[in-house]
Amino acid sequence: MSVKHKIAVVKVGGDVLLDDAERRGLALNIKQLVSLNWRVVVLHGGGPQTNRLQTKIGLKPNKVSGRRITSDKDLAVVKQAIAGEVNVDLTTALLQAGVNAFGFHGASGRMIEAVKRPPMHVSGVADGPVDFGEVGDVTGINHTLLGKLLDAGLTPVIATLGVAKDGRVFNINADTTVVKIAEALQADLLLLTTQVGAVFEDLSKPESRVKCITPQSAKTLIADGIIQGGMIPKVEEAVSLLDSGVGAIAIISGKNPQAFQSIVNSQGRFGTLIAKTDPLD
């Protein structure tokens, strides 16, 4: 009898990889999932590493409302930092933990197809539409190729770059891209790793962690101001994903090697689970 594999998609921010304990814990968590017969796809960014390399060579990071404007020179740095340093470091960390990791970038095999983002109005900017330069919006995921890599027993580790039909490469946002990957694979679980690792009613009080958010409770938490600022669109987008075939989403830190398994087993020990119903009730 063949073993049914569930699929988990893991988004890793560049800030997570700056901490050795976070990186080791993340690798061990992914190893745990693979050992439990989960198929895992990893997508990563690398904002801090890009900023560091830009500064080192005399370029100034340029952001509008938290979104990076990418010139031709900036794109060259993005390629070096994300597809180079970050992808290699994350892939080798997984290999050291015993995961058969396969690192590459989104332009490889047209894994992530994109088009140039048109100039757009940005809240807080009164000077008209902003041209973000060499930044792309995802138009498709090569889920066939991704499936073949998973069938081969590999854990894909993807640097968040996109490619146009004519081969032009774009810098793309990891948060929106990982959503497209989870949708394309109809993933059972989407894990969004952050250093904070959960939604808290009060960040200074670890005991105030919100263990689970449902579509209904999300509205209440937003109305009460517990979920606020940049976390509002993240939670709203996660809730909307539940209707597109993705089983559950969790905001979590990988620092504790048992964190991902706790989410899978609905133990509620780590992170914040976002699901249609609260399994802890």
Automatic annotation (TrEMBL):
This is Acetylglutamate kinase. It comes from Pleionea litopenaei. The keyword ATP-binding applies. One of its GO terms (biological process) is L-arginine biosynthetic process. One of its GO terms (cellular component) is cytoplasm. The gene is argB. Residues 6-252 form the Aspartate/glutamate/uridylate kinase domain. NCBIfam families: argB (TIGR00761). Keywords: Amino-acid biosynthesis, Arginine biosynthesis, ATP-binding, Kinase, Nucleotide-binding, Transferase. The keyword Zinc does not apply. Signal peptide: none annotated. Its EC number is 2.7.2.8. It holds the Pfam family AA_kinase.
